[in-house]
Amino acid sequence: MQRIVDWPARMKEVADFVGLDQAGLETIESTRDLVLSRGEEITADVYDHFLTFPETRRFFEDENGEVDDVRLERRKHSLLRFLTGSIGFKIDEDYPIRLLATGIVHSHPPSHRAHMGSVPSRFMVGSMSFLQTVLADLFQEELKDPREAHAASVAWNKLLMVQLDILQAGYINETPTEASERTPESE
Ligand code: HEM
């Protein structure tokens, strides 16, 4: 069975569906300095949260059950990279493929951590929700105009959901429709 997905088109479809438009992207861009100036704090919040739940903490433990600080620091940097990339979000050929690869790293553990299994997809959803809350709190605290804070939260919420769809695509086996299953050979 041949299954070809046009990832940029899929991303655009979801962006349109949630209403992430140019104005939303500009709003996100306007939060660049604030978000990046607090980037380390944001990622620390996310990872502190991961460490409070055994099911997420275990991904950052060494063989003695101690938190592996080196691994944790690397992961914080990965998340910061993801946040920085999010601010410059654009739907081109590369962006969704990089996201898809990131999703697959979580769903299909590389050999060095094969024993840990997949990061359960519910925690990818949970992480996005957690990030949305951290950002909404930040905008409420730091942006003087409440309408500006609201617009920033709304735009980021949409962006994170559009990205979550692709991150999750590495997890989900969808049943193809008859039409998408049809290949030139089968006709
Ligand atoms: C908002 C959701 C998340 C985002 C955006 C995210 C982002 C990333 C990125 C960008 C990388 C680097 C990928 C690479 O090197 O190619 C990474 C790696 C990793 N993440 Fe996440 N992550 C998320 C949630 C989680 C959760 C919930 C866990 C586990 C509790 C987790 C555990 C890991 C681990 C263990 C790696 C290293 C993969 C490896 O062994 O190579 N991540 N993450």
Give a written overview of the molecule.
The protein is mainly α and 187 residues long. The protein has a single domain, classed as Globins (Globin-like). The protein is 68% helix and 0% strand. It contains 10 helices and no strands. It has helices spanning 7-18, 22-30, 32-37, 39-51, 54-57, 69-87, 94-107, 121-142, 146-169, 178-181. Helix 1 packs antiparallel against helix 9, helix 4 (39-51) packs across helix 6 (69-87) and helix 8 packs antiparallel against helix 9. The two termini are 13 Å apart. Bound molecules: protoporphyrin IX containing FE. Protoporphyrin IX containing FE (HEM) binds at residues 50, 56, 59, 75, 78-79, 81-82, 101-102, 105-106, 110, 113, 119, 123-124, 127-128, 131.
Summarize the structure in short.
The protein contains 10 helices and no strands. With 187 residues, the chain is mainly α.
Find the CATH topology. Globin-like
Low-confidence segments, ≥5 residues, pLDDT <50? none
Sequence of secondary-structure elements? HHHHHHHHHH
User: Could you tell me the radius of gyration in angstroms?
Assistant: 18 Å
Quickly give the structural class. Answer: mainly alpha
Mean pLDDT: 91
Shape: flat
The total domain count is: 1
CATH superfamily: Globins
Biggest sheet character = none
Second CATH tier, the architecture? Orthogonal Bundle
- Give the % helix: 55-70%
Share in β-strands: under 5%
Overall strand count? 0
Bound ions, cofactors and other small molecules, one mention each: protoporphyrin IX containing FE
Number of helices: 10
